[in-house]
Write a structure and sequence with these properties.
- The protein has about 325 residues and is an alpha+beta fold.
- The protein has a domain of about 60 residues.
- A four-stranded antiparallel beta sheet has the order 5-6-4-7. Strands 1-3-2 form a three-stranded antiparallel beta sheet.
């Protein structure tokens, strides 16, 4: 069984950080199932995606998630085919399924990738014919997660950028769907696609959520910046990083990640990304020590993180 990261040799927890964690968990406790997805995608997937259940239970305890809730969360992920289960002696091993690994990779690629810095002014348009209300809403939801906004009833658009998610299969399977690429080309007195951005996406609400995110995490992360890296407590590094990525993921997945040319001048998304990048680079080594102390893989010790982990946020220095 891995040793606890709270051994006598470990750094002493920062009481200010401890109070911040306790206050945050009391004010906005994360749902166990959603937090488990964040931890699996952010921390476990780079280490092979397979862990013994007892270690996972211990890993979630500092978040106020008890053993019953952890078991319920992994059972649900297994039922939804994100995870597969295997008995090893009297314990259970949970491993990412191939489809689960692909889904995690697609969902988390956006978190660590830098915002687009160039755009050739090309748009992708999806035009749907007459659809029943339920199918129309389902199409809108599917395209929303792929970065599309709604220009008009049945007309969806997104700027074409490198690394765009492919059109969802549920959308391409619909009969009569028209997909085209186009650029603005018309008299100056006609509305352009670029001018329709405020109508197609609720950027005001997303900006508000980013600013709340920056206020929520700015002070505690400054506390880590002021301290020596040798003084960082591994468990606190992991807990704060997890809460940071968990909340950033919630905001980011509503953000279409538009090119800079289409965003307001005071857009806070770049500052939120920089905050995550800087904290991740500052504490990833410390958080990794906590993971390897608590979690156990199928062959005992947790495997080292893969190369893709060290490419996050433009590159980490170990």
């Amino acid at each position: 069984m891995p040793a606890s990261s709270s051994s006598p040799s470990a750094s002493r927890p920062d009481r200010h950080v401890a109070r911040w964690i306790a206050r945050e968990l009391a004010a906005a406790p994360p749902r166990a199932s959603s937090l488990t997805i964040t931890i699996w995608g952010d921390a476990i997937a780079p280490h092979g995606g397979a862990v013994m259940l007892p270690g996972l239970i211990r890993l979630l305890e500092p978040f106020g998630v008890n053993a019953r809730l952890t078991r319920t969360s992994v059972f649900r992920l297994a039922r939804e085919r994100w995870l597969g289960a295997k008995r090893i002696g009297r314990r259970s091993l949970y491993r990412l399924t191939p489809s689960g690994a692909r889904r995690f990779e697609q969902a988390y690629r956006r978190i660590y990738a830098p915002p687009a810095d160039s755009w050739n002014e090309e748009w992708e348009l999806v035009i749907a014919g007459a659809l029943p209300a339920r199918r129309r809403q389902a199409l809108r939801d599917e395209l929303h997660w792929a970065g599309f906004g709604v220009l008009a009833p049945g007309v969806h658009a997104r700027p074409v950028q490198a690394g765009d998610a492919p059109l969802p299969a549920a959308a391409t399977a619909l009969p009569g769907l028209i997909v085209v690429r186009a650029k603005d080309a018309g008299p100056a007195n006609r509305e352009s696609l670029a001018a329709s951005v405020p109508r197609a996406w609720d950027l005001t609400r997303i900006a508000l959520d980013y600013r709340k995110f920056l206020r929520r995490f700015g002070a505690v992360i400054e506390r880590f910046r002021r301290a020596s890296p040798d003084d960082h407590d591994p468990e606190q590094c992991f807990v704060v990083r997890t809460l940071l990525i968990h909340e950033y993921r919630r905001v980011l997945l509503r953000d279409p990640r538009l090119p800079v040319a289409l965003l307001p001048l005071d857009w806070p998304g770049a500052a939120a990304y920089a905050l995550c990048r800087d904290f991740y680079r500052l504490t990833h080594g410390c958080a990794e020590r906590h993971l390897t102390a608590v979690l156990e893989g199928p062959r005992g010790a947790l495997p080292p993180a893969n190369a893709a982990f060290y490419e996050r946020f433009g590159g980490l220095i170990d």
